[in-house]
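A favour, since you know our structure tokens better than I do. Could you add the entry underneath, on a fresh line?
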Amino acid sequence: MNAPSPTPGTHSFWSRPESGIAVAAGLLPACALLASRGVVVVVAAGALLSLWRLVVRGQIVLIPQGPLATLMVMLIPWAAVTLFWTLDPAAAAVKLATVTAILMGSLVLIAAARQTDHAHSGAIGTALVGGFVAAAGILAVDLIWDQFIAKSMRAIFSPSSAPLAPEALNQGACVLAIMVWPVALILWRSSKWLLATGAVVGAGWLVTATPSASAGLAIWIATGGGALVFFGGAWAARALGGSIAALTLVAPALPLTLFSPDRIAPYLAATALPELHRLHLWKFVAENILAKPIGGWGFFASRNLPGGAHELFPGVPLMALHPHNGALQAWQELGLPGAILLAGWLYFLTARTSPARADRVTAAALTATLLAVLTIGSLSYGLWQSWWLAALGIVGCTVACLPSLRLYNK
């Protein structure tokens, strides 16, 4: 007589490839808040766990599948070609190796996401919601009690480090502004509508209380874009995708025309120095793009551009590290081919959020997640920052299995 098949549970889940996603998604929000550099370790741990389970099952696929993965992987060889004319080839080669490793880890997690089934999706959904709630609680405590948790962690693990500034909360705030949409969808799908609404409202309040203006803006733009796709349907998703791709391609023209410092500065408050700095920075980048529009200045060249060390304000260089805008950085470093690859990738990514491929609530949540990422990536972080790329890899694998995610229910 055959023994009955076991009911899916904790043991069976941890033997599956999706277990790496649960680890990465659960740890991401708190890690971004307390030790953002550790996000790379989180994505590596999740990818290694998933890779191990995929290899054991004979399910690992090294060849990218679909236009999204193909365009993402094509960016690497083109970036390698630009090493021949970049301004610091040695540093660029090291950074490209890091970016490639993070990309490969992300692809492993996405391959694991394809294995997600209804029986095991509850564990991932519960890990994601639990990690989000824990990080939101930590952020609330740190906002109320002068970064008590973050400073305590710093005193224990890195006592010789410089004192924490309020801006240390920004990375965690940005991750919460992105991850709140998958969390809200999971709660909504689990018939916890009030909790889903509360998660969005609560995350909006928390991130707005941090110094990160881009995180607060991301909540508003994501809300508007999600509502547009929910009510507008497939045509709205296609129009949004086309608009995002078009803006990527015309990005160098905007700082020289509509968003030039001379045009915008009169409307800014006298204290809006960060905003004024961004406008001058983007104009400087746009002028450098026009100087080398085809091949760009080379991968990872932004920090070494001639004139970048010029101080716009006392102690504030025009560009210390990167342009604080993903589209402009792709243009500046990788030229027209890099911009085309990025625009195409964003178009196909937006198309995946269409209600033609998912129900309207799911499509709205996917769109909101994407717009939150694009808002923050257009204002705050460098395109190749390791922690940011690792965080986006975890977000990507979460989104890949999002349509099936729910809360664990015995």
In short: Strands lie at 311-313, 316-317. The chain has one domain: 16-404. The chain is about 65% helix and 0% strand. Confidence is low (pLDDT under 50) at residues 1-10.
